[in-house]
Every structure is written in structure tokens, then in C-alpha cells.
Amino acid sequence: MSTNTRPSPEIVTFGESMGLLTAKDTRGLEYAATLDKSFGGAESNLAIGVSRLGHTSGWFGRLGNDPIGNMILKAIRGEGVDVSRARMSDKEPTGLMIRENASGKATVHYYRKLSAASAITPEDLDTDYIAGAQILHVTGITAAISASGLATVEAAIHIAKQAGVKVSFDPNLRLKLWSAEEARPVLLRLAEQADYFLPGLDEMKLLYNEEDDQKVLERLSAMNAVCIVKGGPDLTYVLVNGTLTEVPYFKADHVLDTVGAGDGFCAGFLSGLIKGYSPQEATRLGNLTGSMVIQAVGDWEALPTWEQVEDKLNNVAHVER
Question: Domain named Carbohydrate kinase PfkB: which ranges (predicted)?
Fold first, then answer.
């Protein structure tokens, strides 16, 4: 399908965005009197993060034509993200996740089976829209939610490759969607097609079935992709053509909510690439945006603007002098 009537955003992504209900009561969902309403989704979080950092981004996917779906679409659009390729379904509902923090233990309950997003197919792709971007970002979540979701990811990567568009891939391994054994061959196959592979170190230990950090990095160094490995000991690993660089984290003054940190990192990293930064410089920016996200509450609400990032960088530079 092709309906392109205007230039594509610099970064295009797609996937499932779900309504998010959060029980504020520390006694847990069963006894909570009220729930906060928002939404979340790795890909839409990233698109919002990129937009806030001053670049153009586009997100698409399928949402139910219901109150939650309408809320999500309006909110993403309101953040300056192009949602012109999103589709509203009258047949399937918008997925839902409910989060609780009972007795200090965070738990998420998903209600996404047979959701509108899981019904996405390669026919939902706008070839020209993807081909006109600089970077296509995909995640393993879309590959996990349904067979047609995986087929759509593979088709989108093919379109990008044919058009010379760089492909960014975050495996986002979700063990509530599939087991490590089921995910392993699929995610590693997709990783081989990426130009930028953005896994977490713990994810790669599961996918490689390997506990030794050094052996995991050695295997990744053989990949053609630029590998950015999150979750090292106070640092992020950058592997470019087999050469390893360690980029330190930015210190977070107070950690309030770690949800969304990975999406914040990816938004910063990809924005850095669009700005012309080297992978190492882009990783430093990603480390900063990730550290800023965890100092406030929310999946995407805490994603920083470019002005906030510049203020933070100026403060860091001042302290370093």
C-alpha cells in the first residue's frame, strides 16, 4: 500500500500502543480504590522521545476504534508525532495493560490477545512512507504479538533495505509474550538484518544462552550491525566493526521509575545519529536521555526535550571544568 502525500519523517516506527491503568494503592490492584489512566508502547514512546528532541518521527499501528484507542492516537499526535498511517479498527479492541506495585513489587498484567495491534499485516505498510525515512525502528514486541506482526516487521525491514534506509532493532524481549526458546531464532535472525542493534546485556545472555559477559560481547562483535549493548556495569557497550568502546552512564540524582528508560535511551541514540553524531557520541546522548527518564514517573511523560538535554549537558560541562 502506498498513500504518501508528504515527505516522510526522519524516523519511522510502528507497533502496539496500549492503554495503561496504574493502581496507585500499594496494597495492589485487588484493593486499589483508583487507577491512573495513560498509555504506553515501546515504539510510540520512542517516537515521542525523538519528537521532543527536535526531530521528525512517525508512528503507526492498529488501534481499536474505542475510547482508549482514540485517547492514544490524540496523545501521540499531540506530541508532534506523525500518525497519518495509523489505522483504527472497528473489529478488534485496543490492548490494555494494568500495572500495580504491591508491597514494593512491580507487576504488569496484559490484556492484549486478539487486540487490534496484533491484527497488523504487511498490507498495512506504506512502502513510500518507509522508503522516505532515514531510519526505520522496529522491536521484537511486534514480532512476538502475532504471526502477522512478525511478517509485517520482516516486510518493513525488506522495504527499508531496498530503499537504503537504515534499520534500528531493539529486541525488547518480553517473556510474557513468548519464551526465550521461541524468541531466540526469530530475534537473532532480525538482528542480522539490522544496521543498529540495541539489545540489553541481560537479553543477550538469554538469547545466546550464555552467562559470561565477555563471551556475549565477543559473539556480538562478529555481527555486521553496530551493536549498542545497554545494561553494563555503569556503562553502555558500543561495538563497531568488532571494536569495543565503553560509554559511562550519567549519574541519576534520584530514581523514581525505571519504566521507559530503554525507550528513552533509544530515542536519544537515534536522535544523535540524525544529528550526525558518531555511534559513541549518540550513545552518550542516549545514556543521558535514559537517565533523565528514570528521574520522573511515566512510560513517556518524562522523556526530555532538547532544551532540557542542553541544560543538563551545560551543567555537566560546568561541573567537569
Answer: 10-305
